[in-house]
């Protein structure tokens, strides 16, 4: 295997338990997640609210520590690094968050905000020379995200949501990272602005050879942004596959149900399609079901699904991994009830 084929990021058996509300109770936010992210690709993480997407992103960034498992980035096991060693890895590992306003210090000027990582990581000299170098570098970064250098002297509240997200992206790029985790970067923005930001992220990826982990609850966003998608349900990956294959040939019943609920732009197709109705309430990560986590809502679950946790393994096509004992081919196989 050449180094080109080696994953940039590799997770094996990653688990995160949080303390729950009651004494001794736990919330299993991420459960036995294994995946590889290849250099230059965008790996999407998709699933309903609470399925563990953000926790997984935070684990990769080491903002929270995993309960078990291994997270390798650029060949190093992040969970074994000291805080000091982690600081140097952080240069290569950056994040763009959903709400840029919350992540931009309102009392700092834009120039200071974007320059902050350069100063923290000693990328510019101290003193007047350093300040001039930082201003020049910040001007380049702002230009790269479509903002004028003159915005350096202004404050975050003077900008729109889309412009603030551009500022957040400029800051994330300051240290020339290899991997950027984009956690719902457009979901706080108006629809009209979302495409501008996704286009910008795609252009920056092309120009800079970036690798993205792209977190979203929105499947149509995945189709635009991701090369491969990991579908998460209750802390586990249930399907991991090339994006187009997910849309044309989903195999996990949960993926089918997500796809059947996603809006379709074509009104005729929208009227004609039928939604898969899931039974019951979504189970809680404080008390996940035995065996397959989807089985309590799955239209085709059988007795065995309660006893065995299905491993995430390739089905039919190499690289199309599904964690299901009885993967389905057609959505029609799941439509037991007529939809309104
Ligand atoms: N610090 C914490 N303490 C306790 N439980 C937590 C903590 N952070 C997350 N959780 C729980 O872990 C589970 C996964 O949450 P997470 O935020 O990762 O999901 P998500 O898929 O990103 O959802 P959303 O899209 O709503 O952000 C949820 O049940 C959540 O309540």
Question: What can be said about this structure in brief?
Answer:
Keywords: ATP-binding, Nucleotide-binding, Transport. The chain has 340 residues and is α/β, with parallel strands linked by helices.
What would you say this structure looks like, in words?
InterPro entries: AAA+_ATPase (IPR003593), ABC_transp_ATP-bind (IPR050319), ABC_transporter-like_ATP-bd (IPR003439), ABC_transporter-like_CS (IPR017871), Oligopep_ABC_C (IPR013563), P-loop_NTPase (IPR027417). Keywords: ATP-binding, Nucleotide-binding, Transport. Residues 9-259 form the ABC transporter domain. This is ABC transporter ATP-binding protein. Belongs to the ABC transporter superfamily. The protein has 340 residues and is of the alpha/beta class. It folds into 2 domains: 3-92 and 177-334, Rossmann fold; 101-176, no CATH class. It is built from 12 helices and 12 strands. It has helices at residues 53-60, 83-90, 100-103, 110-120, 127-144, 161-173, 191-208, 219-225, 243-248, 253-261, 267-272, 304-307; strands at 9-19, 26-37, 42-46, 68-73, 76-77, 93-96, 179-183, 211-216, 228-233, 236-242, 313-314, 321-322. An 8-stranded mixed beta sheet has the order 6-7-8-3-9-10-12-11, with helices on both faces. Strands 2-1-4-5 form a 4-stranded antiparallel beta sheet, with helices on one face. A hairpin with a 2-residue loop joins strand 9 and strand 10 (236-242). The protein starts with 8 loop residues before the first strand and ends in an 18-residue tail after the last strand. Residues 18, 27, 29, 47, 49-55, 217, 285 line the site of adenosine-5'-triphosphate. Adenosine-5'-triphosphate binds at residues 18, 27, 29, 47, 49-55, 217, 285.
């Amino acid at each position: 295997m050449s180094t080109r084929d080696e994953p940039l990021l590799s997770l094996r058996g990653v688990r995160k338990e949080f303390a729950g509300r009651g004494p001794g109770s736990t919330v299993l936010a991420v459960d036995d997640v294994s995946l590889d992210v290849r250099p230059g690709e965008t790996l999407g993480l998709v699933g309903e609210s609470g399925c563990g997407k953000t926790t997984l992103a935070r684990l990769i960034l080491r903002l929270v520590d995993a309960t078990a498992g291994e997270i390798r980035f650029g060949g190093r096991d992040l969970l074994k690094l000291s805080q000091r060693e982690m600081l140097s890895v952080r240069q290569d590992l950056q994040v763009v968050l959903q709400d840029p306003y919350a992540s931009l210090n309102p009392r700092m000027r834009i120039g200071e905000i974007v320059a902050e990582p350069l100063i923290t990581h000693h990328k510019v000299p101290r003193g007047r020379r350093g300040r001039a170098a930082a201003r020049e570098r910040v001007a380049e970064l702002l230009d790269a995200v479509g903002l004028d250098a003159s915005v350096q002297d202004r404050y975050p509240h003077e900008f729109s949501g889309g412009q603030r997200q551009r500022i957040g992206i400029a800051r994330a790029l300051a240290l020339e990272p290899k991997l950027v985790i984009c956690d719902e970067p457009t979901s706080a923005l108006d629809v009209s602005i979302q495409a501008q930001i996704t286009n910008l992220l795609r252009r920056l990826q092309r120009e800079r050879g970036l690798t993205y982990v792209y977190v979203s609850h929105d499947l149509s966003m995945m189709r635009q942004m991701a090369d491969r998608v990991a579908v998460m349900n209750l802390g586990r990956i249930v399907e991991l596959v090339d994006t187009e294959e997910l849309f044309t040939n989903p195999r996990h019943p949960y993926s089918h149900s997500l796809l059947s609920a996603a809006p379709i732009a074509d009104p005729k197709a929208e009227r004609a399609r039928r939604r898969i109705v899931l039974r019951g309430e979504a189970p809680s990560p404080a008390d996940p079901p035995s065996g397959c986590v989807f089985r309590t809502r799955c239209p085709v679950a059988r007795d065995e699904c309660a006893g065995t946790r299905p491993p995430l393994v390739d089905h039919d096509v190499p690289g199309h991994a599904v964690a299901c004992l009885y993967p389905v081919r057609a959505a029609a196989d799941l439509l037991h009830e007529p939809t309104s």
